[in-house]
Design a protein that fits this description.
Conserved hypothetical protein from pyrococcus furiosus pfu- 392566-001, ParB domain, 2 domains, 10% strand
Length: 267
Amino acid sequence: MEVKEIRLSDIQVSELNTRKDLGAGTEDTGLDELASSIKEKGLLSPITVRKHHNGTYSLIAGQRRFLACKKIGLETIPAIIRDISDDVDATIISLIENVHRADMNPIDKARAYKIIYDKYSDYNKVAKETGVSSLTIRKYLKLLNLAPALQEKLTTANGPAGIETLSKIAETFALDKQEEVLERIGGFKQQIQLEMLKRSGGDVGKLDGLRDMALEGAFDARICRGLDGCNFIPDELKQPLMRAVKDFQSSGDIQSFKDVVKKIKNS
């Protein structure tokens, strides 16, 4: 590995570059702003490239920096040159350089994890290579089972829901039902969305009832373990509320829960 100035004309953007969605994370700083910053202060971080035998290079990480430098007419750019022969190794390097950035499109991450997983067929090996937990990797791979329309919406700017929620939807519902499911659970915190998905058992028809329960605060009440920390609930209503929650969990009885909630509101 070496670091030196190389000609921009000798660099091609590699298909192995894991960052495909250049718009993700640019809500505050776009390519024009980055180009202006580089023109004024210089490039602070070198790009990473893969060297080929014919003297050319493939860009592995730093695509926005590369394009910004081209935009302002620079002829050379500082680069970390990696001698890599294996495509998966190149993908791993690109992913490692990008994966911990909050502004990387989740689908780009998922596709990169998939390439690495296809080589090793072992979640623990992928975790070791990337420094990301195997549980997180599994969640991202499930995103690739989302309907194409949802994958297109999933960006860091306005993703329709959290990664865990979308992963659970992909795992539980058929492609033609996923958009409808997301619409029905929209507006709730991710923890509540996950509870609704779990209780639905994969049945879209149950989501309307679960949404009503969530609006009544059923799942919030369940999260208050023993209700000891819920100081807004009068002591005399804590036990009735706990019983109502248990009835709801065991038999789906929502009425007694609504009655107790009404008393809490009135108090």
